[in-house]
């Protein structure tokens, strides 16, 4: 009697194990997790809150826990990077930004290709590949600047840089996505999209365009 | 006699020929499918119009096969020079097909053969809400096998019983028949089957340990790559810009989401339905993002920072669940593959722009890495034209071998891409 129960019971358990291990919601099992998972803290990993604090305002924890928030100290300049942009994000800083000169000289061939690529990835999604505010998101986000308008043709390089750094109206800050040199390169690339004569009538925004295929797939 | 032998030989060789042809055509078809999926499937479907036209029936539309070769190699040039290409462009503009000069003629043939032979998978009737899995067939075959095995077993038993009856009738005396569970041949077959089946599952399970193919964790926010990268055409590098500059393809911080979502606070696209049939309220998911960002959607401003910790009050990072994870003892660098190797994200991550929820597309096993390193050609420097990555100008031996025709191309494997220390150190 007992024996007849054994077999179906084992089969049943086996089926449950197989079925439960087939779920794609859990990552499965490992040999030697200590070799698989890093002992050091990895990028984008959550820090153990019993050891680390991410803000120094937590006075009670100072002296007991390690302060670490993965951010560089304010004013840090990466080797080879341009110096920090010091104007503050307020109306006065915006006005003063017009006086800031573009520290880069004219772009060489490689750099201008790179600037176009960066523009197409980061800016063309709204401003369109030709800068006439017809990017794929232009139907969803209102008030996108048509960069070929006289307003932007006459806008100072520094002001454009300021807007990219801190954001303007519905545009967010791109300081996290583009470093200072890349932002200045894009300023120069925008100049190539604009009509040469500032008094020329600006290009009329055309129907919603798609981004070039070459960057769509990346 | 010799005549019969000749006829037999002819038949036999004919048979072998047929078998070979069937198999080799199978090989080409499978190859074409793989090529189609890696190169074409993001824009083309065999039977339906997609970002580009349906490819089935190309021979009735395209002027010639030669035209197809030229078109695939350089669509932009064809649009400028060829009348039919121009009409195609007019129909599908503004998108222009990506050029695939690296596809060889026989590879294109394989792809064309695949799309011509393509038949859409038949979807069983979805009666009574019963989902029809793709593994239904294997279940059916399994049951059939078991039934056939049972019948064979019963027939063998009947045979032995009949033999016993006839033996009794004829007066032949044999010993008491052994019951099947003590019959050595049955036991042997049983043990061997168990060994084979058990061995297969043990080894398969052991290889699968630590691999996460198809892993699709539940994320804190229902973020659809299909909506963002597919429908809205946001470049992968917009959010995962780290992939071109560093080892990691970073997970974007919340401020990158807010670049667009400061303005986009409602989801107004096609209804989203999860794989388990539940519908997703896109607007509610955007509200979750606002909670993480510390953004007040009514006032359209970030919460004030009263506790002076540098972030708006109530803001916190989104605890995304990591999908792709290589073991710690493997070094992998994104920028090396994206920037230097010029690989597409989709090569390893699959058609992300078609995935509502991301799952791991490849098994990320070492064999998979090595295969690609063996096959992928590097952008080898050409001294005469000055094209290619100048780093490779110092590989003198390969330059000589290329010149003398000893090798036709340089793969990642040739330049040390399959050395152990390249990734394990």
Give a description of the structure.
The complex is a heterodimer of chains A (218) and B (425). By secondary structure, chain A is an all-alpha fold. In chain A, 37% of the residues lie in helices and 2% in strands. In chain A, strands 1-2 form a two-stranded parallel ribbon. In chain A, helix 4 crosses helix 8 and helix 7 packs across helix 8. About 4% of the residues of chain A have low confidence. Chain B folds into 4 domains: 116 residues, Orthogonal Bundle (Cytochrome Bc1 Complex, Chain D, domain 2); 71 residues, no CATH class; 115 residues, no CATH class; 61 residues, no CATH class. Chain B contains 19 helices and 4 strands. In chain B, the strands form 2 sheets. Chain B has a two-stranded antiparallel ribbon. A two-stranded antiparallel sheet of chain B has the order 3-4.
The CATH superfamily of the largest domain in chain B turns out to be: Cytochrome c-like domain
The largest contact between protein chains, plus residue counts on each side, is:
A-B, 44 and 54 residues
Largest pleated sheet of chain B:
2 strands, antiparallel
Biggest sheet of chain A, in brief? 2 strands, parallel
Task: State the total count of DSSP E strands of chain A.
Answer: 2
CATH topology description of the largest domain in chain A: Cytochrome Bc1 Complex, Chain D, domain 2
Q: Can you give the mean pLDDT of chain B? A: 82
**CATH fold title of the largest domain in chain B:** Cytochrome Bc1 Complex, Chain D, domain 2
Strand content of chain B: under 5%
Please, how many helices of chain B? 19
**What share of residues of chain A is helical?**
25-40%
Question: What is the CATH level 1 assignment of the largest domain in chain A?
Answer: Mainly Alpha
Q: How many structural domains in the coordinates of chain A? A: 2
| Number of helical elements of chain A | 9
CATH superfamily of the largest domain in chain A: Cytochrome c-like domain
CATH architecture of the largest domain in chain B: Orthogonal Bundle
Secondary structure category of chain A: mainly alpha
Tell the overall outline of chain B. extended
Head-to-tail CA distance between termini of chain A: 64 Å
Unreliable stretches of chain A:
199-206
Q: Give the SSE order of chain A as H and E letters.
A: HHEEHHHHHHH
């Amino acid at each position: 009697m007992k024996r007849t129960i054994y077999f179906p019971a084992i089969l049943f358990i086996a089926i449950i194990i197989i079925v439960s291990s087939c779920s794609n919601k859990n990552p499965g099992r490992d040999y030697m997790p200590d070799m698989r998972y890093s002992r050091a803290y990895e990028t984008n990993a959550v820090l153990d809150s019993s050891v680390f604090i991410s803000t120094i305002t937590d006075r009670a924890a100072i002296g007991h826990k390690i302060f670490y928030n993965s951010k560089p100290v304010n004013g840090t300049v990466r080797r080879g990077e341009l110096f920090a942009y010091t104007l503050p994000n307020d109306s006065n800083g915006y006005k003063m930004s017009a006086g800031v000169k573009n520290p880069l000289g004219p772009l060489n061939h490689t750099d201008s290709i790179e600037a176009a690529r960066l523009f197409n990835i980061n800016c063309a999604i709204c401003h369109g590949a030709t800068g006439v505010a017809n990017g794929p998101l232009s139907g969803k986000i209102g008030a996108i600047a048509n960069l070929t308008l006289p307003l932007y043709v006459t806008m100072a390089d520094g002001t454009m840089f300021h807007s990219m750094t801190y954001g303007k109206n519905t545009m967010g800050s791109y300081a996290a996505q583009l470093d200072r040199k890349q932002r200045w390169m894009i300023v120069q690339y925008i100049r190539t999209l604009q009509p040469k004569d500032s008094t020329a009538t600006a290009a009329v925004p055309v129907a919603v365009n798609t981004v070039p295929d070459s960057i769509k797939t990346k | 006699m010799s005549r019969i032998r000749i006829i037999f030989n002819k038949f036999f060789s004919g048979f072998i020929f047929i078998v070979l042809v069937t198999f080799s055509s199978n090989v080409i078809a499978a190859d074409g499918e793989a090529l189609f999926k890696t190169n074409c499937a993001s824009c083309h479907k065999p039977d339906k119009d997609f970002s580009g036209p349906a490819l089935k029936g190309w021979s009735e539309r395209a002027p010639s096969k030669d035209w197809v070769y030229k078109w695939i190699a350089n669509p932009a040039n064809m649009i400028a020079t060829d009348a039919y290409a121009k009409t195609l462009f007019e129909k599908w503009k503004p998108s222009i097909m990506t050029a695939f000069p690296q596809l060889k003629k026989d590879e294109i043939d394989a792809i064309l053969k695949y799309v011509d032979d393509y038949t859409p998978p038949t979807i069983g009737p979805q009666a009574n809400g019963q989902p029809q899995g793709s593994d239904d067939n294997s279940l059916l075959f399994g049951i059939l096998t078991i039934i056939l095995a049972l019948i064979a077993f019963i027939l063998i038993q009947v045979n032995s019983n009949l033999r016993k009856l006839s033996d009794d009738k004829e007066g032949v005396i044999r010993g008491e028949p052994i019951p099947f569970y003590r019959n050595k041949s049955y036991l042997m077959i049983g043990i061997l089957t168990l060994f084979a089946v058990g061995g297969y599952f043990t080894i398969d399970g052991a290889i699968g340990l630590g691999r996460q193919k198809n892993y699709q964790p539940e994320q804190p926010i229902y973020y659809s790559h299909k909506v963002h990268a597919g429908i809205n055409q946001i470049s992968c590098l917009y959010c995962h810009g780290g992939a071109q500059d560093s080892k990691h393809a970073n997970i974007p911080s919340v401020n990158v989401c807010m670049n667009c979502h400061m303005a986009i606070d409602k989801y107004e696209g096609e209804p989203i339905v999860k794989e388990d049939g539940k519908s997703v309220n896109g607007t509610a998911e955007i509200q979750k993002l606002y909670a993480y960002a510390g953004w007040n959607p009514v006032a359209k401003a970030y919460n004030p920072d009263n506790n002076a910790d540098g972030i708006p009050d109530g803001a916190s990072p989104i605890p995304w669940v990591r999908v792709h994870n290589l073991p710690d003892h493997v070094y992998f660098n994104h920028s090396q593959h994206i920037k230097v190797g010029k690989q597409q994200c989709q090569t390893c991550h699959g058609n992300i722009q078609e995935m509502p929820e991301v799952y791991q597309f490849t098994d990320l096993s070492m064999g998979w890495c090595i295969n690609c390193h063996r096959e992928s050609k590097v952008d080898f420097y050409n001294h005469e034209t000055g094209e290619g990555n100048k780093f490779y100008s110092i590989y003198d031996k390969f330059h000589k071998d290329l010149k003398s025709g000893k090798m036709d191309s340089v793969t990642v494997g040739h330049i040390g891409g399959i050395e152990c220390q390249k990734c394990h150190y």
